[in-house]
Amino acid sequence: MAQYIEKMVKGQVGLIWVPHRGDRVMFKCKDRTESVHAVVTSVSMAKGCVKAKDIEYMYTVPFIACRPSNRPVETDPPSPMDKWSVYKYREVRGHDDSQPFEAQILLNNKRVIYASNDGWGGGNEYQPDYKNNVSDEVVTHLHADAKVWAVQFGDLNPFEPIDTWIYWYVHERPLGITAAKHIADNVARMAQYKQPQKEETNELNTPQS
Predict the structure, then answer these.
(1) Domain-ending residue, one of 44, 68, 92
(2) Model's pTM, two decimal places?
(3) How confident is the model over 95-116, as pLDDT tens digits?
(4) What is the extent of the structural domain holding 45?
């Protein structure tokens, strides 16, 4: 439900829209000719502003400057990962070689896996919810679905597809970035890393004609 507050604007009392966390908003930015479209990450009623994030930046925007975004949200076609979701993701303290976090993985809205990363630079760890009689097979199931998801959207040789899916689901999906775009960007980035480095020639040892 939309929320409004009364605020004095140019000598008159008017209703100001208050965005909620997760809302897609648009606003003017002095450094850009077009409106910025971003997702609200937090709301401060005391300061009368929101923090909103797009693909590149985090913004602090007064309520009065926000409007509901009119940009259509792109969607992906159905995939095996549609029945999986990330729940209670939170970043925790740990080493800084990678982002430490803890989260729960849901299958059809039921918790089945605990996911975590200790920050030492390795891949994520996945532990079945043994207390609720979930077997190790659920991790195999998740990996198989994540691999199909990655291949479906263009990564023919996916590396750690569950890790890739979690990053997209938590950090990019809320910004309206599709899985297809996320995978395409990853593939392009990896292709750059794999390009052979040009060998430097030593002019002193180059034969003279």
Answers:
(1) 68
(2) 0.77
(3) 666 789 999 999 999 999 999 9
(4) 10-68
